[in-house]
Amino acid sequence: MRLFGFGKGPKRSSWNVMMKTGNIILVLVVGILVGGVGHAVLADGGTDKSLKIFSMVYALIQNDYVDRIPARPVLDSAIRGMVASLDPHSEYMTPQEYHDLEINTQGRFGGVGIKITTSGNHILVQAPIDGSPAFRAGIKSGDEIIRVDGKSTATLGLAKAVRRMRGKPGTHVVLTIFRKGVFRARDFDLEREIIKIHTVKPRMLNGHIGYVLVREFSENTARDLDLTLKGLDRRGMRGLVIDLRNNPGGLLTSAVDVSSLFIPDGKTVVSMKGRRQERAFRSHGGNAFPRIPIVILVNTETASAAEIVSGALQDYHRATVLGTQTFGKGSVQTILPLFDGSALRLTTARYFTPSGRSIQDYGITPDRIVKEIVPKGTRAVEVPREVDLKHHFLNPDGREQRIVIPPGNIQKHLVYPIPSGKNDTQLVAALTLIKSRIEH
Fold first, then answer.
1. CA 216/CA 302 separation, integer angstroms
2. How many other CB atoms sit within 10 Å of the CB of residue 210?
3. Out of 195, 216, 239, 259, which residue is the most buried by the measure of CB atoms under 10 Å away?
């Protein structure tokens, strides 16, 4: 069994449609065991009589329902309903869904190269991956995918639509796209390819300030970031901007490794606390860049592992966090395989920043609030934060966070690429801040 912390709730999952997987963003902890499943009992120790009611209802459906129906869909739906009542991130997975999740962690993808998000029942392109079939075909951020191989995405739903976009390299899939103000329905015939995700994208900005966009936290992110920063250092880097905007999270181990590049060895990066487990993850073998001034850019879609890195560097006063309030995903899920190939994804712990702050509901409050400027004609999509999701649980201090966080700290997420040049007000503010520190 394994522990995962998912970057988003089930209604707001981001997916990379590539080789073998959709990208449900994970925070992964390996080797922590959770006890076996016992009998359902009431608080007073008696057998739960509700299980008898469940059995009676199931028997009545099988015997008396107007049509004969297979047993498995009825039971799957019942289990889904039970688990869905817990919180936004716990979920029952069928054998096929669990298989897809295992594929999600392999890091190689076959498909068309699109990062997807949702707005209600609409499936939208968050961004095409650079150099992918979708990118070369001209698919753009904000495009709505209305059909996959002629099947309506409204009927398919996100998971099935993603599964249809995947496939062996060399095979084809047809996406029907709606682009507001341009065309109502246009078919894009795409040939699937093997696509590797490059999670770190660097460049050197004026004034010898390094800029690194970190798209997510995968197995190789810390290694790639280390090599990237050493390359920028050789070119005379005097300050650094780490862009975690729209970063939905990733592997917890990767978040710890990335934080270790900037924090002395042996420092707590994040701790996990649950009913049956408590553990601290510490920095190790890093602190390669102990003195360079750093600004971290965040927004509403900065979640989970990205919040861990932001919170750790903020707590140790190693970086200034700039942008708007982050998503607020502060929980860890354990994957519990079941005997028939299905699995239960169950929330088992909260995680905390080095100073003991829970990210749950709150998210990370930037040291400097700077909002994005929305380009004219951009299709805006209101994205819920963790606190807005159904059945979300409160921060451990017990307060309702929507009252605590100043409204001015939060900005609706927008489905469009991060602005460039002077239009990127957050990056401009970050550069101004770093230059002032370099000059002094």
1. 10
2. 25
3. 259
Percent residues over pLDDT 70 in the chain:
79
Which tokens in the block code for residue 169?
């390299």
Domain 106-196, classified CATH 2.30.42.10, yes or no: yes
| Residue 13 confidence class, pLDDT cut points 50, 70, 90 | very low
- CA-CA-CA-CA torsion sign (77, 331, 213, 300): positive
Residue 439 and residue 267: Cα distance in Å, rounded? 30
Closest alpha carbon to 359 in 318, 323, 315:
315
Residue 165: its H or E element: helix 153-165
pLDDT in tens, 271-321: 999 888 789 999 997 777 778 999 999 998 899 999 999 999 999 999 999
* pTM for this predicted structure: 0.75
> To which CATH superfamily is domain 200-331+349-439 assigned?
2-enoyl-CoA Hydratase; Chain A, domain 1 (3.90.226.10)
Domain boundaries, the chain: 106-196, 200-331+349-439
* DSSP-assigned letter for residue 418: P
What's the rounded Cα separation, in Å, for the pair 36 and 389?
29
